[in-house]
Specification:
The complex is a heterodimer of chains A (about 775) and B (about 230).
Chain A lengths: L2 H12 L1 H39 L4 E9 L3 H5 L4 E7 L1 E8 L6 E8 L11 E5 L9 E5 H6 L7 E6 L2 E12 L18 E7 H7 L5 E9 L5 H12 L8 E2 L4 H42 L1 H9 L4 H41 L11 H27 L3 H5 L11 H4 L8 H12 L1 H39 L4 E10 L3 H5 L4 E16 L2 E10 L8 E2 L5 E2 L5 E5 H7 L6 E6 L6 E10 L7 E4 H8 L4 E9 L4 H8 L7 E4 H55 L4 H38 L12 H27 L3 H6 L3
Parallel strand pairs in A: 4-9, 6-8, 14-20, 17-19
Antiparallel strand pairs in A: 1-10, 1-11, 2-10, 3-4, 3-7, 5-8, 6-9, 7-8, 12-21, 12-22, 13-14, 13-18, 13-21, 15-16, 17-20, 18-19
Chain B lengths: L4 E12 L2 E13 L4 E5 L6 H8 L7 E6 L2 E2 L5 H11 E4 L11 H9 L8 H7 L15 H13 L5 E5 L7 H18 L2 E6 L10 E6 L2 E6 L13
Parallel strand pairs in B: 3-8, 3-9, 6-7, 7-8
Antiparallel strand pairs in B: 1-2, 1-4, 4-5, 9-10
The chains are: A alpha+beta (about 775), B alpha/beta (about 230).
Chain lengths: ~775, ~230
């Protein structure tokens, strides 16, 4: 081993605690980077593999009822390579031992010839025997969420008739990786997908020789918009809701959104970690190199050239980074597996394997090395350029000047001790700034870790306690007479009932269009309200339509403008509507009208498609039992249980991610505070020991050194709050889709938590340094010059 | 009058890497109030070790040492800190001023923790630095810095002033000026003073000269006539 390398090894060993603390910060950065990007990649590739293998369609369309004979014409659309038609219907579902009624989506399948698209993967049990009409396979998520066993009997309300079905197997489908009827809520407990005998289903719903769902796969290079347009023209007269591509397929959309979130988290957080690590490395190396200036001068005197010396110190940086990278690889692998574990509850892919991508690991290490070299080189350059003789002389005494506040005339504000602290900060403002930024960065990370759940909590609270105040929703597959909901009012425990109607609609304004629903609200609706983001209530004006601001922007209309509504249901009325106003709602792209106005427009009588019920909690079970038998009420949603299962899922995830990020942030605080204290101690050991000799106690001397850091932490915490808010806003803006205006809510306890963790980590690192202050060499200082 | 310091059979052994160094090998000593003692001796003779033990910076390996009725031999670290704070003024070869504090503030640093100190201005006036109160160490010459250090040491009105090579880093003229101040402290405040030096000429201003060699006091002399600082030269 060369002598210089031996020196490197010993320098590293001598500074081992500092080396490890910096390596840990780097490890967090590289670990988060690896975990996030590898998880992102694993998700993407698992999904693509799955889609290809299961032949996930490219285009989806729903109609009311179209004859099978149309198949040939659909096949003939240029660009279409495969077509599949089927019958899909939603029905009320009840299962013995499960109290509330649920919703089953029934998909007709010929089990003798399994469909070529959306291929099912059987995970447990068996396929129903072909031709046997009362056996079904069910999506695995539902079975797991309800803890059901194979052989469970389910009752569905098929066109007014109760049908008993036996669950014989569980399956995965690319169409229901994320199963939901709508919205982004996890409905696993409420929404079951049943694949059942096609003929029996068609017979029950009078759909023989007809279909209501079309799936297409496109030829390579085909134009999706052209195919969609042709398909829509063909299906228009059969009650088409309009075809959509994958990007609007609900499961795909949610899965993509989640994958995108992984990417955003994976980009933003590691950047902070690596930046802080580079920062610390820069300062520590600067100090290390500076402290060794006499050795560098000696090396130069011995004939070593600048390049060799610079390489020697870069070697020091490399050791730290590579140590961090090795640790980071371990952290990344572990974290990636843990995240994959959590996500595989969310995404059901037949095969979902996490692996660390070597290129991601290399890129992370490369970024960290570049950052470290960037920092180190600046430090090294200054010292290496010194002439040998200069380096051999002791440095000239540090120059200080009165504080700014003193120069301004407010001199007698502080004790000498406080002035020492303040002047040190003023003399090296960059270093103080570094501490503040580093610590503030970790405060920001702590806030970022927790704000998501604060915001979700707030969002859910607003949606379920203020916007939708009904605790039970009843949906009717076919609109019913408004009078029918009065029946509901007579059911046990029902205190209030309100009907609403939603009609699928295509809104057009000029060349812009958007597919949504026109929602009719009662004139004095209490149970479903329209609230803006300041929680002010808005109501549609008589004869006009009230639009979510985002939807108005998308259509390019303002209050007073008109737009064309093409209803996709019933008489498929086309009408010109006047925009009476816009409302900044948190969620959705909604269009509201008064219920009477909507019904008049639809020209099919006073109808409602759903009812919101305010129900006495105690009577809820009795009510749900009664609802099971009401044929028209196909869809029942109990908001409380929806909210409970949502909260349980997020609480678990919150605990995991907050835990991880708290550990990471604490690592940064310790890295920054400890290293800074060590550097300060190294630079000021002489001064502090002198004070000890003069009779200052260990506590008093510690206060002088640690007081500066304490002051910096005190400044850093509120700075971190602001930074955290910005970071949270940045993440929200990167993650949230256009259909949401996600509230950025950070509860006070989140700030408190972030501050407390930071203070605790700061104190812990201070205590370690304090130990060194206690062991200052008092005798040595009398004999040596600084 | 009782002795300020009394030491018996003091030894100090410490490890320096692999080697064991016997810095003191049995020192007996009594120092009376108001004495000005000069400790002479070559490097490694043990004079600094002795001064450190008397100043409460170090404890002996064996033997006994008392400051008045304080037992320094068995004192805890906290006791020694209190002892230094209340009774001892130190002057170092390299002044050891705090660079971030002005002359006045360097003195205030000590007066704030002392029981009945002079004011910083008074102490600095005493060393003829009344004009340079608000200068930082980097704006002062070496001699001025050393005088600030002396002002800092005497401001708390210590019983003893311990000076380790106070002129070691200074030129001739400045060095003499500093010695004058030390003599003035001794004469006018009655502070017992001990000065370590390499410079035998300084011995002329002492009441008593202790010569150390190889960890022992090898000679003790009393100059016939105590010279003033201006009378000595080297």
């Amino acid at each position: 081993m060369k002598a210089l390398n031996r020196k490197l090894a010993r320098d590293v060993w001598a500074m081992k605690t500092q080396v490890v603390s910096i390596a840990l910060v780097i490890a967090c950065g590289i670990g988060a980077f690896i975990a996030a990007f590898s998880t992102h990649d694993s998700l993407l590739s698992s999904r693509e593999r799955y889609y290809d293998g299961a032949r996930f369609p490219h285009v989806f369309s729903r109609v009311k009822r179209a004859p099978d004979s149309l198949l040939t014409q659909i096949r003939a659309i240029p660009g279409v390579s495969e077509v599949e038609t089927r019958v899909v219907l939603d029905a009320q579902l009840s299962i013995e031992g499960v109290l509330p009624p649920m919703i089953a989506r029934l998909i007709g399948v010929d089990f003798a010839h399994l469909p070529a698209m959306n291929r099912l993967t059987l995970t447990t049990g068996r396929w129903p025997a072909p031709g046997v009409k009362n056996e079904v396979v069910v999506n695995q998520r539902f079975m797991e969420a309800r803890h059901l066993r194979l052989g469970t009997r389910a009752t569905v309300l098929l066109n007014g008739k109760l049908e008993r079905l036996t669950i014989v197997g569980t399956v995965l489908s690319p169409e229901y990786i994320y199963a939901t009827r709508g919205g982004g809520m996890p409905d696993d407990e409420w929404f079951a997908v049943f694949w059942t005998d096609a003929e029996a289903l068609a017979a029950a719903f009078d759909m023989q020789g007809a279909f209501n769902s079309v799936l297409l796969r496109l030829a390579h290079g085909a134009s999706q918009p052209a195919v969609i347009a042709a398909l829509d023209r063909l299906l228009d007269r059969y009650g088409s809701l309009g075809a959509v591509g994958r990007e609007d397929q609900i499961s795909h959309k949610i899965v993509s959104q989640e994958i995108e979130e992984q990417r955003v988290w994976g980009t933003v957080l590691p950047v902070i970690f690596l930046a802080v690590a580079a920062f610390i490395l820069n300062v520590v190396l600067h100090r290390h190199v500076y402290a060794q200036r006499t050795e560098i001068a000696a090396l130069k005197a011995l004939g070593y050239d600048e390049r060799t010396i610079a390489r020697h110190y870069l070697g020091f940086a490399s050791v730290i980074v590579l140590l961090g990278a090795a640790l980071g690889l371990g952290i990344g692998d572990w974290l990636g597996r843990a995240m994959t574990g959590l996500l595989s509850d969310f995404f059901h892919f037949p095969s979902f394997e996490f692996r660390v991508l070597p290129e991601v690991a290399l890129a992370g290490t490369g970024i960290a090395l570049a950052a470290a070299y960037g920092g180190a080189l600046a430090a090294i350059r200054g010292v290496v350029r010194l002439r040998a003789a200069e380096g051999l002389r002791p440095p000239s005494p540090a120059q200080f000047r009165p504080l700014l506040i003193e120069r301004l005339g407010y001199a007698r504000l502080a004790t000498p001790g406080q002035r020492m602290i303040l002047r040190n900060i003023e003399r090296k403002p960059l270093r103080a700034a570094f501490t503040v930024i580093g610590v503030a960065g970790s405060v920001a990370i702590l806030i970022t870790a927790a704000f998501w759940y604060d915001s979700l909590d707030y969002f859910m609270d607003v949606q379920f306690n203020m916007v939708q105040r009904a605790n039970v929703f009843v949906g009717f597959p076919e609109p019913v007479e408004r009078a029918a909901i009065r029946e509901l009012a007579r059911l046990p425990g029902v205190k209030q009932v309100e009907g609403t109607r939603a009609i699928p609609v295509l809104l057009r304004a000029g060349h812009r269009s958007y597919r949504t629903a026109l929602t009719g609200l009662g004139e004095d609706a209490q149970l479903q309200r329209v609230l803006d983001n300041a929680l002010r209530e808005h109501r549609p004006a008589p004869g006009g339509v009230l639009l979510t601001t985002r939807l108005a922007a998308r259509l390019g209309v303002r209050a007073g403008d008109t737009l064309i509504a093409e209803m996709l249901e019933g008489r498929r009325v086309k009408a010109v509507l006047r925009v009476s106003g816009t409302v900044r709602e948190m969620a959705g792209m909604n269009a509201y009208m008064r219920l009477d106005d909507l019904n008049r427009l639809a020209r099919d009588g006073p109808l409602v498609s759903a009812a919101g019920l305010r129900v006495d909690r105690a009577e809820e079970p009795a009510l749900l039992e009664r609802l099971k038998g009401i044929p028209a009420a196909a869809v029942v949603i109990v908001t409380r249980t929806l909210l409970d299962s949502f909260r349980a899922t997020t609480a678990r995830n919150a605990l995991f991610f907050t835990g991880i990020l708290t550990a990471f942030a604490a690592t940064i605080v310790v890295g920054v505070v400890y290293n800074n204290a060590r550097i300060q101690l190294a630079e000021r050991a002489w001064e502090l020991a002198s004070l000890r000799v003069l009779g200052m106690t260990r506590g008093e001397v510690s206060l002088l050194l640690l007081g500066e850091l304490a002051l910096e932490i005190v400044v850093a915490i509120p700075t971190g709050f602001v930074l955290g808010y910005w970071l949270a806003a940045l993440i929200v803006s990167l993650i949230i889709p256009e259909t949401f205006e996600f509230p950025l809510v950070i509860w006070p306890h989140t700030y408190l938590f972030a501050g407390a963790v930071t203070v605790a980590a700061g104190i812990a690192s201070a205590l370690v340094v304090r130990n060194r202050i206690d062991n200052l060499d008092l005798v040595g200082v009398l004999k040596t010059r600084e | 009058m009782p002795a300020v310091f009394s030491a018996r059979a003091l030894t100090k052994t410490y490890r320096m890497g692999e080697a064991e160094v016997h810095a003191l090998r049995g020192v007996d000593l009594e120092i009376r109030p108001g004495e000005l003692i000069v400790l002479l001796g070559p490097s490694g003779s043990g004079k600094s070790t002795l001064l450190n033990i008397l100043g409460g910076l170090d404890t002996p390996t064996s033997g006994e040492v008392h400051f008045g009725d304080h037992d320094l031999t068995r004192a805890s670290e906290a006791d020694l800190t209190r002892y230094r704070r209340e009774h001892v003024g130190f002057v170092f070869q390299f002044y050891n001023l705090i660079p971030s504090l002005t002359a006045r503030e360097n003195v205030a640093l000590v007066t704030e923790i002392a029981e009945r100190p002079m004011t910083p201005d008074e102490a600095l006036g005493w060393v003829d630095l009344g004009e340079r109160l608000d200068h930082f160490p980097s704006q002062l010459s070496g001699g001025e810095q050393q005088r600030v250090a002396i002002a800092r040491a005497v401001a708390k009105r210590p019983e003893v002033l311990l000076c380790d090579e106070p002129t070691g880093a200074l030129d001739y003229q400045t060095g003499k000026l500093v010695l004058e101040v030390i003599a003035k402290v001794n004469a006018e405040l009655g502070t017992t003073a001990m000065v370590i030096t390499h410079n035998a000429a300084i011995a002329g201003m002492a009441d008593r000269v202790l010569r150390l060699g190889d960890g022992r006091i090898v000679a003790e002399t009393r100059p016939e006539r105590k010279l003033t600082a201006s009378e000595i030269s080297w």
